[in-house]
Write a structure and sequence with these properties.
By secondary structure, the protein is of the alpha+beta class. The protein has 17 helices and 14 strands.
Length: 475
């Protein structure tokens, strides 16, 4: 079977990889701060076997005929594009939209890479055949991948030649040697493979342009995890306890990349075009998840307003109005991206990249303000709610029930909802969520500049000139 189980997935992580947390080498399947997310991902794989979900989450492999993840579906129609979106929504709703790098995200990136294989082949036919084989390999093995688009932050006032950048240090007949570091490699501790995709930037040199893949247990690969936010109890931290996907630095210390796992090299002038095409697929996935997250935040706010009895207060109604408009606008961008789909390089039905980019910009421009509206709905109650230990302690439970609950039959539900709201809006996990949404990909100014550079307004200018009498339209 091409579809692995959750147990098989967890076993695949015990492969000798180097994952470091707080200066100690750890096993991600057993470490208390990491095991919760590993379990969530294992459940993700098990869902593909569940009778109620397998037909919805899988498809028949075009090569083996066995069931494989639907995340590798290359849509040939709008209906298939929507089918992919519904799968993404399903997984996003299970995590409240807070996991940006579940396995289907990188499968979507691979769809984008596979889509531009002919462009890669023009540089070297071997690159194209390597991508085709790797795409099939990941699809048939049901692998979990990670990536990073960015370098570690550095002082821009210092000369760049003083730093060791991520680059190819040696080219051999059987492959390459690479060295350097990559930042914000989300899900890296839990991935089977690292897929390297070079993002364009000023000063990029040919030795820094490399598309490649290596297993996470490759010699010389080390993962440095950021501080985990996983709470001790899922009752107190319903999101962070299970869905802290962990961002990481990846160090490549003279790592060997076999020639069959090299997909592109050197061409700085082509890198921007490749990246933009692949990013369009990834951004579509991200926008879908962000819609789900916005819907979940709206659900929290409406529920809290009901529990607090402040839903009729004008300020609360205004905040809810703003969140509803936000949700529906994001949903409209997804609908428009699908209804105005375009043909991709290889003939796939792809989401309209302009609509996807506009949707992402709308999210990035308004998300922080929407979180503030959500905090206004929750009010000071967001700060305090009885913890699970308070409710299970016989001495404290009486105080909770007498003074904090009283005759309100919904009080304990209110506290549960406020704890969920805290994970979305208040604690360090919530702050990481905001930073991830705003900066894990290209920043808002970069995306805005990209839109302005790519947006074709020539027809609107022509019409304006006609109205102004500057030129005549066609009869």
């Amino acid at each position: 079977m091409a579809l692995i189980t959750g147990e098989e997935y967890l076993a695949s992580l015990k492969d000798g990889r180097q994952v470091w947390l707080a200066g100690e080498r750890v096993d991600v399947t057993t470490h208390p701060a990491l095991a919760g997310c590993a379990k969530t991902l294992a459940e993700h794989y098990d869902l593909q076997h569940h009778p109620a979900h397998r037909d919805f989450l899988t498809m028949k492999s075009p090569s083996s005929g066995e069931p494989v993840s639907l995340a590798y579906l290359e849509p040939r129609s709008t209906e298939e594009l929507i089918r992919r979106r519904q799968m993404t929504e399903f997984f996003s709703r299970r995590t409240g939209g807070v996991m940006g790098r579940t396995p289907e995200f990188m499968a979507t990136v691979l769809v984008g890479l596979h889509d531009v294989r002919d462009i890669l082949g023009k540089e070297d036919p071997v690159f194209s055949s390597n991508v085709v084989r790797y795409f099939e390999y990941c699809r048939e093995k049901n692998l979990c991948l990670t990536h990073s688009f960015s370098d570690p932050p550095r002082n821009k006032n210092l000369p760049p030649e003083g730093f060791e950048t991520f680059r190819v240090t040696e080219q051999r007949s059987d492959g390459l040697i690479i060295r350097g570091a990559r930042a914000v490699a989300t899900l890296a501790p839990y991935a089977n493979e690292y897929l390297g995709v070079t993002s364009p930037r000023p000063g990029l040199t040919p030795d820094q342009v490399i598309y490649f893949a290596v297993p996470m247990n490759t010699r010389g690969v080390r993962v440095f995890c950021r501080e985990p936010f996983a709470g001790a109890s899922p009752h107190d931290h319903p999101l962070s306890a299970s869905y802290d996907e962990i961002d990481a630095w990846i160090i490549f210390e003279d790592v060997f990349v076999p020639k069959e796992r090299i997909f592109f090299l050197r061409r700085v002038d082509v890198a921007a075009r490749l990246f933009s095409s692949i990013l369009a697929w990834a951004s579509y996935h991200t926008l879908i998840r962000e819609v789900v997250k916005a819907e979940c935040i709206l659900g929290v706010c409406v529920a809290v307003a009901d529990y607090l009895g402040n839903g009729k207060i004008p300020d609360t109604q205004q905040a809810l109005y703003q969140i509803i408009c936000y949700v529906e606008t994001l949903r409209a961008f997804v609908d428009s991206a699908e209804s105005r789909s375009v043909r991709s390089f290889s003939g796939l039905v792809a989401p309209n990249p302009k609509q996807v980019l506009l949707g992402r910009l709308h999210f990035m421009e308004h998300h922080a303000r929407i979180l503030e509206h959500a905090r206004e709905v929750c009010g000071a109650g967001l700060l305090m709610a009885p913890r699970q230990g308070d409710l299970t302690n016989p001495e404290l439970r009486n105080d909770v029930e007498r003074y904090l609950v009283g005759p309100d039959a919904q009080a304990l539900e209110r506290y549960q909802m406020l704890k969920l709201a805290w994970d979305y809006l208040g604690d360090s996990f919530a702050t990481r969520q905001l930073l991830f949404e705003m900066y894990a990909g290209a920043s808002f100014p970069v995306n805005k500049a990209r839109l302005l550079a790519e947006y074709d307004s020539s027809e609107f200018v022509r019409q304006a000139k006609i109205l102004a009498g500057i030129s005549k339209g066609s009869e």
